[in-house]
Design brief:
alpha+beta; 5-stranded antiparallel beta sheet; 1 helix; about 90 residues; single chain; elongated
Length: about 90
């Protein structure tokens, strides 16, 4: 998506919530980063739950892949944005 910034998305059949899909995507992103000696820093995520006789649960996660010493490797702060996306802000410590 840009310098050090990536997105992963996925869906799952059945009556599960988007949180389950998001958790799986976060694990995959973290594993991808670790294999490269980097740290996964979540930036943003969104998703929607499954609907009976409708769509599958889905999620999308945006993250940065940075060295452990990088400025972006800070404790995130989560808040819901006006468009119902989860906004993640990196706080300076």
């Amino acid at each position: 998506m840009g310098r050090d910034t990536y997105m992963i998305s996925g869906s799952s059949p059945g009556l599960i919530g988007s949180g389950n899909v998001r958790a799986k995507l976060l694990r995959e992103a973290d594993e991808w980063c670790r294999k490269r000696g980097l740290v996964m820093v979540p930036v943003n995520y969104s998703g929607s739950d499954a609907v009976v006789m409708g769509k599958w649960a889905n999620a999308e996660v945006m993250f940065r892949a940075v060295p452990a010493s990088d400025f972006e490797n800070k404790r995130p702060s989560f808040e819901r944005g006006p468009d119902h996306h989860q906004m993640i802000t990196i706080r300076n410590q």
